[in-house]
Every structure is written in structure tokens, then in C-alpha cells.
Task: inverse folding
């Protein structure tokens, strides 16, 4: 177990180093940082001085180590576009994105598992058929189109829900403002959360359904039925538990995608999160912001992957044996 | 997978047609109405896009042919000033939506096909090399693939797009946008091909025909290109079909986010983005019709890809 943990940690650190190197190269190869910092009128001598002071004349490995050191301290320099420290801007916008991702994640997991179990148990019901066929559209529909259709239906035609922004927010700490404490905050959250979570919802639902159908065919379920155990107990204690293993993996990996797809949802709904900033950073080639965002997302993904691996290990006792014997 | 009869005597057209109709694949196809419908819809959209200049009633991106008086005409209703009827309506500048969709689908499909071709060529080449050479080369290629696979394609594509764009001088960006888009979508999607081709190559490279070729002193390049490649192409076709749907969706998403093709050559995604601004004032047709076209295209190609995967290669399921 410990050996596995250490190996996975080293792997994670390697991935982060590779991503850090890509981020670092952005500074090196894309544009001249000095040009981006000083105005047109700066003299050749000023430029050389600044270059020396910022350490841009040092050998590349030295600069890379310095970059990693700064990144570990959370310093990513100053955004070209906003002229403020990147870490500050991200810290300010991150709560909005996390809130959105959290709510849609919970929505996707609870509804996905619930509907998956339902369609597996009543596989020939008309409602199950309806859910299954509409889920196919959910998988093929691009995220932004879902958002537009929802806005058209609920904001323009019915005028029930707001179509952009976060509504009223409450400041909890200096950097953390939440929309989860106000009615208008929740109202503004509904459409973006559905938009963001729908793909994951349908994916999880189809997965749970397939796994449930598989498990319900096995001998131990038949045996449990023969023993006269209540249907409810068979379905939820015996069957559902055993379908959760692949579901955890997919759900974990999808959590990462939710954060990535938040870029699209935030653009459609003008949700003031980090994703919206990232799109603007790409349009304006704001290198410090791009590289910080890249590192942040990579960190999220690496941590999620790590947790999923460990969870897998904790949930399935068989893995502990096979992994040890098959370890490289 | 390669048919030996076709090598000795090239079949005539009639016999190719017979072989298609007699195949298991066609039998399976003929029994699935939804798949037939998907194939027809895909074909109709591809043909309509390909022949857009001949089919489209207007040339939507020639400013001289536009009449501002025609702006915001609702579908199937005569315009209040000019009396012209457009069956999908017009946008703010009096552009016929139906024609714009035909031209837009043309760009979407063009980028989609080109990106898939690029991803496939890159992935197949790297997969062949990784599988055949093994060792350090294999490790490096597959590690890069692993790292890339842990990030969603949209993120990779956005990043590559951002970097490439910043390397191109401002005045060339308009023309280069489509190529940059193809490059970034292609680079975000090669891993699938590389992994599949690599694992097939690992299986193929120890078979007798490869060993025989090696004994004859055939060069590695020739062995890979002439002997192994044809035998690993089956799964690639399936991945390519599903990849096409993904590429079209990715292209439209990037264009919708405003980082894809410029508004002077709009794809379906760009049309949806532009139309989105008018959604609130009630001009729903400007964004909804391109959206529905995109939905039908993506859904049909997806269904076709899924069917092809199940029909050709049950073990990929």
C-alpha cells in the first residue's frame, strides 16, 4: 500500500513537473516578457537592466528552478491584461467556479445514480425508455448548445430564471464570496449547474444502468432472492454496492472534466469564474494567467486521479492482493 | 482484413457492389432503421455542404448581395419592407440563415475531416513507431500520451490554440485561424489512435509474415508501411468516425467561445455565437437553426460511429 502510494506520488510529481515545464516554456518562447512589461519609450539600457534584474540572463535550468520555486509559493507574476498579480485574480474568482462545479457534480452524481438504478430496475417501463433515449441526445449535445436552449426556454420564453451572472453574493471572508446563501444566488445557479452537469449525468446514468443489469444477473443476487431477502434490500445493499467501483472511477475523472467544461458554461452564462478569465486570457495572449491556470488545472487533475486510485484501492479488497503480486 | 483476391485481380464495380451488399455489415445496417436514418442525414448534410455554392439561394458572405432592409425577417413570413420570404429567416444584416448554415456546415465539416485526418496520421505514425521499436521511444511516446489523456481534449485544444496564435503575427491571423484550429483539434485527439495502433502493432510484429519480411532484409519503414499498417487499420476507422463527431463538436465549441474561425468565415459554432446575442430580443431563429443542424450532424455521426464500433469490432465495446 505504502509502496503504491509512493509510486503514485512520484508519478504525480513527474506530471506536474512536465506541465510546469510547458508553462515555463510559454514565457520563454511566446513573446518577449520585457516588451510586455515596459512601454515603447523604454531605452535599450533600461531594458537590459530590467532583464538582468529579473534574472532573464541566467541559464535556462536556473530560471526553471526559480519558476518552480515561485509557483510553489503561489506566485505567478502579473497578468499582462489586468495588471494585477495572477494569484490574487484567481483567488478572487475561484469560489464562483468551485461552487458551480460542486453543485453540478452533486447533481450529476445523485441524479445519475438514481436514474441509472431506476432504469435498470424498470428496464421495460415507458419512463425508462424515454429517459434512455433522451440521454442519447444529452451525450451528443454540445455543452454550449444545452446552455443556449435552456436560456431560451427558461429565461427568454418563460422568464423564470436569470440568464447570466451569479445573482446576489454574500462576502464570507475577504476572498470568498458565495451565492449559496441568497435566493437570487440559487436561482442564477440552476441553469448553469444543469448545463454543466448534464453530460456527466447522462454518462453516469448509462454506466450505473449497465453495471446494475450486469450485477442483477449474477448468482449471488439469485441466491439472495432465494433466501427471501426483501427486494429493496437486494437492490440497494447487494447490487448497488457492487456497481459503485467503476462508478467511482468515472465520477472522479468526470469531476476534473466538470472544472474544464466550466470554461464553456461560464462563457454561456457570463458566470464570473476562472474559466471566463481563461478564455479572455487566451484571446489576449495573457501568458502569466495562461500558465498559472494550466498549472492549477493540472494540479486539480493530478490530485483527483490520485484520490480515485486510492479510493479504488480502499473499495476493492481484491486489488490489494493482485496489485502486490503484479507490481512492476 | 486485406482480401487476397483483390490483390491478384482487381474486381469490377459490379462485384464490389455485390460484396458490399452481401457483407454482414450491410445486413446489420439494413435491419436498423435509426442507423439508416443517421447515414442518410449525414449524407444529406455532407452533400448540401459540399455543393453549398450551387444549392444556397443567396451568397451570404458577399456584402454587396445583402439588403439591410431584409434584416430580422422571421422564418416563413414575408419581410415587412421588401416582402421577401426566407424559410429560415434572416439575421441582423439581412443574411439568409439557410444559406449561412450551408456555408457554415461546409467549414465545420472541412475542419472536422481535416482535424481527424491530421490526428489519425499523427497517431498512427507514432503508434506504429512506439509499438514496433519499443524501448525508450515507446516509453516516451506513451508517457506523453498518458499525460495528455488525463486532460480533456477541449483544454488541450484551447491551450494549443492560444500558444499557436501568439506565435503568428497579427496580420496573418485571419487566414491562419482555420489551420490553427485544425492543428489544435488534431493535436488534442491523436492519443486514441496511437494507443490502439500501438497495441495492434505489438500483436502483429511477432507474426510470421513480419518475421519473414525481416528475414528478407526489408527495411523497418517498408515493413511498417506495407505490411503492418494495412492490418491495424480496422479499429482506426471506428475511432475516426467517432472522432469526426467529437471534432465537429470541439470545433463548434471553440468557435462559440470566440477562439475558433473568424466571423468572416463563420462555421456552425460561429453562427450560433453571433445569433446568441439576439436570443433575448426574441430573434430565436438566428441561433436555433444552426444549433439544430449541429445537433443533427453530431448525433447522426455519433450513432453511426457507435454502430460501426459494435458491428465491426465487438471487443472494443
Result:
Amino acid at each position: 500500500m505504502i509502496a503504491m502510494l509512493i509510486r503514485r506520488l512520484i508519478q504525480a510529481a513527474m506530471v506536474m513537473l512536465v506541465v510546469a515545464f510547458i508553462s515555463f516554456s510559454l514565457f520563454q518562447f511566446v513573446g518577449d516578457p520585457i516588451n510586455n512589461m515596459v512601454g515603447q519609450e523604454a531605452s535599450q539600457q533600461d531594458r537590459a537592466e530590467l532583464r538582468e534584474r529579473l534574472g532573464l540572463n541566467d541559464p535556462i535550468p536556473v530560471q526553471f528552478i526559480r519558476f518552480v520555486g515561485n509557483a510553489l509559493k503561489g506566485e505567478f507574476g502579473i497578468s499582462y491584461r489586468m495588471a494585477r498579480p495572477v494569484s490574487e485574480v484567481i483567488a478572487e474568482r475561484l469560489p464562483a467556479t468551485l461552487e458551480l462545479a460542486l453543485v453540478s457534480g452533486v447533481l450529476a452524481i445523485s441524479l445519475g445514480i438514481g436514474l441509472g438504478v431506476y432504469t435498470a430496475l424498470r428496464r421495460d417501463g415507458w419512463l425508462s425508455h424515454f429517459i434512455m433515449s433522451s440521454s442519447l441526445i444529452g451525450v451528443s449535445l454540445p455543452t454550449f448548445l444545452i446552455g443556449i436552449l435552456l436560456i431560451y426556454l427558461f429565461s427568454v420564453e418563460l422568464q423564470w430564471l436569470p440568464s447570466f451572472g451569479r445573482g446576489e453574493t454574500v462576502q464570507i471572508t475577504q476572498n470568498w464570496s458565495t451565492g449559496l446563501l441568497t435566493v437570487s444566488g440559487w436561482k442564477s445557479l440552476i441553469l448553469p449547474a444543469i448545463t454543466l452537469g448534464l453530460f456527466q449525468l447522462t454518462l453516469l446514468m448509462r454506466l450505473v444502468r449497465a453495471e446494475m443489469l450486469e450485477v442483477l444477473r449474477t448468482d449471488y443476487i439469485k441466491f439472495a432472492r432465494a433466501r427471501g431477502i426483501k427486494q429493496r434490500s437486494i437492490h440497494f445493499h447487494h447490487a448497488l454496492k457492487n456497481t459503485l467501483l467503476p462508478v467511482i472511477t468515472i465520477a472522479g475523472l468526470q469531476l476534473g472534466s466538470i472544472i474544464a467544461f466550466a470554461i464553456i458554461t461560464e462563457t454561456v452564462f457570463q458566470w464570473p469564474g476562472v474559466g471566463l478569465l481563461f478564455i479572455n486570457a487566451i484571446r489576449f495572449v495573457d501568458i502569466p494567467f495562461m500558465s498559472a491556470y494550466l498549472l492549477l488545472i493540472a494540479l486539480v487533475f493530478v490530485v483527483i486521479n490520485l484520490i480515485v486510485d486510492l479510493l479504488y484501492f480502499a473499495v476493492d479488497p481484491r486489488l490489494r492482493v493482485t496489485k502486490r503480486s503484479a507490481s512492476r | 482484413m486485406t482480401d487476397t483476391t483483390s490483390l491478384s485481380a482487381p474486381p469490377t464495380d459490379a462485384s464490389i457492389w455485390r460484396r458490399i451488399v452481401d457483407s454482414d455489415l450491410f445486413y446489420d445496417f439494413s435491419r436498423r432503421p435509426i442507423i439508416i436514418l443517421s447515414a442518410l442525414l449525414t449524407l444529406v448534410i455532407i452533400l448540401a455542404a459540399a455543393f453549398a455554392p450551387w444549392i444556397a439561394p443567396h451568397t451570404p458572405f458577399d456584402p454587396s448581395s445583402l439588403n439591410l432592409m431584409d434584416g430580422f425577417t422571421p422564418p416563413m413570413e414575408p419581410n415587412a419592407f421588401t416582402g421577401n420570404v426566407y424559410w429560415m429567416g434572416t439575421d441582423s444584416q439581412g443574411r439568409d440563415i439557410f444559406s449561412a448554415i450551408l456555408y457554415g456546415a461546409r467549414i465545420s465539416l472541412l475542419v472536422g475531416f481535416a482535424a481527424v485526418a491530421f490526428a489519425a496520421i499523427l497517431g498512427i505514425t507514432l503508434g506504429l513507431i512506439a509499438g514496433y521499436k519499443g524501448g525508450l521511444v515507446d516509453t516516451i511516446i506513451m508517457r506523453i500520451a498518458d499525460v495528455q489523456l488525463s486532460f480533456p481534449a477541449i483544454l488541450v485544444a484551447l491551450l494549443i490554440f492560444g500558444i499557436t496564435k501568439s506565435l503568428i503575427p497579427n496580420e496573418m491571423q485571419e487566414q491562419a485561424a482555420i489551420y490553427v484550429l485544425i492543428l489544435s483539434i488534431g493535436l488534442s485527439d491523436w492519443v486514441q489512435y496511437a494507443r490502439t495502433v500501438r497495441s495492434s502493432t505489438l500483436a502483429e510484429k511477432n507474426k510470421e509474415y513480419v518475421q519473414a519480411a525481416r528475414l528478407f532484409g526489408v527495411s523497418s519503414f517498408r515493413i511498417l508501411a506495407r505490411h503492418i499498417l494495412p492490418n491495424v487499420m480496422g479499429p482506426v476507422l471506428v475511432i475516426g468516425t467517432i472522432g469526426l463527431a467529437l471534432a465537429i463538436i470541439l470545433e463548434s465549441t471553440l468557435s462559440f467561445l470566440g477562439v475558433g474561425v473568424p466571423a468572416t468565415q463563420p462555421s456552425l459554432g460561429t453562427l450560433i455565437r453571433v445569433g446568441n446575442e439576439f436570443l433575448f430580443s426574441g430573434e430565436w431563429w438566428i441561433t436555433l437553426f444552426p444549433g439544430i443542424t449541429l445537433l443533427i450532424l453530431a448525433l447522426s455521426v455519433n450513432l453511426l460511429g457507435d454502430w460501426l464500433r459494435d458491428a465491426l469490432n465487438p471487443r472494443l465495446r
Q: What stands out?
A: The interface with chain A takes residues 147, 150-152, 154-155, 158-159, 161-163, 165-167, 245, 249, 252-253, 256-259, 269, 272, 276, 279-280, 282, 284, 287-288, 291, 294-295, 298-299, 302-303 of chain B (CB under 8 Å).
